[in-house]
Design brief:
single chain, mainly alpha, two-stranded antiparallel ribbon
């Protein structure tokens, strides 16, 4: 939530009122999950148009261009495509790590009783789709793609639910957010454990050693962010060299960021009141200028405000926008461009790879999420979200089948250097996500009328 300063307290620039009328609604819009989904959808359409246009070859060639970073004999060279997937997406996983940590400490997952329903539902929503894919691809070289239909795209899923407005209870939105966070945690674990071919133990040990140092910083009460930033970059480099996917370093680094404030929140008002007393007593220089003493007091208030907010919360707030409107759309631009034809669409409904993904995301997610949740409620382990019904959990299960970002990411790990399988997988993910979004929205609108 963004607090807006009343106009009488603001020193307005000549055109600031006009700019506010345009920028303020826009700022509120782009901070929502709907904006993330729209940015992702728009860039996906751009990628699909480019890939199926006369510039298709140039589009693919562009992302295969090498980019080298380093100095002296220490140079890291990868294609732009790999820099996006292995480098830029680390920020996405870093934000996921911050969200997971917040939910575990103070969010929906902090209370075991309240967390049990979304945790059980998320596990069901990961296991059943994987089993469907394995059943259709068992004994085939394509079996390695079983992790693709396990993932849920939180931005699209929540956006579809939010579009229903007051038709669905707010507890259902909270349930979906918690479920998606657990789903993200499961996807990270799958990537780390199962999508790693060979492991260089020395590099992995070095990465974990850096992680231990970051935790030591945390326990020592170091709140400045630059030591964690340097450690995260170093850990990312070691993780890349180890063979474990480098984006896992983003999650590990996020978990080491301090989640407790430097100053106790209950004493914040007393702290600020002391600064305000000094501010009122300090003689001003001019009506529109500050004395050196005023500047020092204001700087102290700023530091106090930062100190009462945990570094993890500040980072999550600061990175949400660039990740949502830059990192994820660029990922879609680099990965969603696949050739579309009548033959490719027909193949999507007969190929074991495509069928495994489509049935896994659409049916598997719905059966796994709603079935596991219903079982947990029937056994008395958990209660339904406030105001929600079991029929609405079926709709949430359908929306959970919107895989997109994480599903495409896992497909890239499952079949590197196999463009035909990647094209089938990405086509299936796009189709399944579209089917899941429409069917989930229609179902929830119908049962919630």
């Amino acid at each position: 939530m963004h607090f807006r300063i009343p106009e009488q307290f603001r020193a307005l620039a000549p055109w600031e009122k006009v700019a506010d009328r345009v920028l303020t609604p826009l700022e509120e819009f782009i901070h929502s999950q709907t904006a993330t989904a729209l940015a992702l959808m728009s860039m996906t359409l751009v990628a699909l148009v480019l890939a199926n246009s006369p510039w298709g070859a140039a589009y693919h060639h562009f992302f295969e261009q090498p980019l080298s970073i380093g100095f002296g004999d220490h140079v890291l060279s990868m294609s732009l495509h790999h820099w996006v997937n292995d480098g830029l997406m680390t920020f996405f996983f870093f934000v996921i790590g911050l969200e997971i940590k917040r939910e575990l400490l103070v969010g929906e997952l902090s209370d075991i009783r309240a967390a049990l329903l979304p945790v059980v539902a998320a596990i069901g929503g990961m296991v059943v789709p994987a089993l469907i894919f394995l059943g259709l691809n068992w004994g085939q070289p394509t079996v390695n793609g079983w992790g693709i239909p396990m993932a849920t795209d939180i931005a699209f899923a929540i956006s579809a639910l939010v579009l229903l407005g007051s038709r669905v209870p707010s507890g259902l939105v909270t349930f979906l957010i918690a479920l998606a966070i657990v789903d993200d945690l499961g996807a990270v674990a799958v990537i780390a454990l199962f999508y790693t071919d060979t492991i260089a133990l020395d590099a992995l040990a070095a990465a974990l050693g850096v992680w231990a140092v970051l935790w030591l910083f945390n326990r020592m009460g170091i709140y400045r962010l630059w030591p964690y930033a340097l450690g995260a970059v170093l850990m990312w480099a070691f993780m890349l060299a180890s063979g474990v996917h480098a984006t896992v370093a983003g999650v590990l680094a996020a978990l080491a960021i301090p989640a407790h404030p430097k100053y106790k929140p209950q004493f914040f008002d007393d702290l600020v009141e002391g600064f305000l007393t000094r501010f009122r007593a300090a003689p001003p220089q001019r009506d529109d200028a500050l004395s050196a003493e005023h500047k020092g007091i204001i700087f102290s208030v700023e530091q106090a405000a930062k100190g009462v907010l945990p570094p993890s919360i500040r980072l999550e707030h600061a990175l949400h926008l660039p990740v949502a409107l830059l990192v994820i759309p660029v990922f879609a631009l680099a990965n969603a461009g696949i050739p579309i034809s009548g033959e490719a669409l027909a193949q999507a409904f007969v190929s074991p790879v495509s069928l495994g993904i489509i049935l896994g995301l659409v049916l598997g997610k719905m059966i796994g999420i709603s079935g596991a949740a219903a079982l947990a409620v029937k056994l008395g382990w958990a209660a339904l979200p406030n105001g929600a019904r079991l029929s609405q959990l079926v709709g949430v299960g359908l929306l959970g089948g919107i895989g997109f970002t994480m599903s495409i990411f896992i497909a890239e790990l499952a079949w590197p250097g196999q463009p035909e399988l990647l094209a089938q997988a990405k086509m299936a993910v796009l189709l399944a996500s579209l089917i899941a979004a429409v069917s989930g929205y229609v179902w929830l609108r119908w049962v919630s009328r």
